[in-house]
Design goal:
Its EC number is 5.1.3.15. The protein is built from 3 helices and 21 strands. The protein has 313 residues and is mainly beta.
């Protein structure tokens, strides 16, 4: 409803004239969402620092998906099905949802936008299911970024459908070799570099010195990404998304990705809230909800003063 829109909601023209939404909380605290892909491309803190990573070679030209930010993988994660890799939601034009279903009201004046995607005729040929995908992108007063997705089966033929999903978040990091991920230790994972064979994580944290592409299973609702050099910790909170994908292509793989710079891998890390191992099935009228909340907190972990376990509690 138009009356719900805060004054911090702006519609603007982005790269190559594509429509984007700008959310503002203060002079520097902001987020940007392209209607192409329902794609969050920017999330800045109170100092105006960019917290998401956007490829130096990102192509803002449909139908090519945007490389970086937070691509949406729906109705298929990766190549786990018959559709194009990661599905079609990330390269469709979304609409601003004028009458979204109610979500919790906030005591603080959050800046948010509600978007909606429905299938095109072409989508129905390749994935013959009617759905409504509604997403709220919300920038909180403390700078936290929340994406709440609601996917509803609107099939009139009584048929259920099944999908996999991920928020494919690219975080901006100072130097990938100085980063560690905590909260996934001792968990089982599927290794995409080894034909999705199942292993158990052995380290007390995940660190990076080569290509990684793993799907961690039955993960906690909170994961921490510690960036020693920037003295910053990203906290990933998630609901309705049991899995977490950790990806960095490293140097050789980066050179094979046309819309990724050769050196980009050093300054990016994907930690993705996902539903992969157990696909979600919805009967007609049923709705699934998946929520991702990202926050960035200062940490002096590099001087041994931050207990990451406290961040994860």
């Amino acid at each position: 409803m138009a009356t719900e829109r805060p004054p911090s909601f702006e519609l603007a023209k982005g790269i190559n004239g594509l429509d984007k939404i700008v959310l503002r909380q203060s002079r520097f605290r902001s987020a940007e969402v392209y209607l192409y892909g329902g794609h969050v491309t920017s999330w800045k803190n109170e100092n105006g620092e960019e917290l998401l990573y956007l490829s130096s070679k990102a192509i803002f030209k449909p139908p090519k998906p945007i490389r970086g930010g937070i691509p949406l993988c729906f109705p298929q994660f990766s190549n786990l099905g018959t559709l194009e890799s990661h599905g079609f939601a990330r390269n469709r034009i979304w609409e601003v949802d004028a009458s979204p279903p109610p979500l919790p009201t906030y005591s603080s004046p959050n800046a948010f936008v509600d978007l909606i995607l429905r299938p095109t005729e072409d989508d129905l040929k390749t994935w013959p299911h009617n759905f409504e995908f509604r997403m709220r992108v919300d920038l909180g007063s403390e700078g936290e970024l929340t994406l709440t997705s609601r996917i509803r089966n609107t099939n009139a033929d009584g048929k259920p459908f099944t999908f996999t999903f991920a928020y494919h978040t690219y975080f901006s990091v100072s130097d990938i070799s100085e980063v560690r991920v905590e909260g996934l230790e001792t968990l089982d994972y599927l290794d995409n570099l080894k034909n999705r064979e199942r292993f158990t994580e052995q380290g007390d944290a995940i660190t990076f010195e080569s290509e990684i592409d793993k799907i961690y299973l039955s993960t906690p609702t909170k994961i921490a990404i510690l960036d020693h050099e920037k003295k910053r910790t990203f906290v990933v909170r998630k609901d309705g998304l049991a899995d977490a994908v950790v990806w960095n292509p490293w140097d050789k793989k980066s050179k094979t990705i046309s819309d990724l710079g050769d050196e980009d891998y050093k300054h990016m890390l994907c930690v993705e809230a996902a539903a992969v191992e157990r696909p979600i099935t919805l009967k007609p009228g049923e709705e699934w909800k998946g929520r991702l909340e990202l926050s960035a907190v200062p940490s002096s972990y590099s001087s041994g003063q931050l207990d990451p376990k406290k961040v994860l509690q």
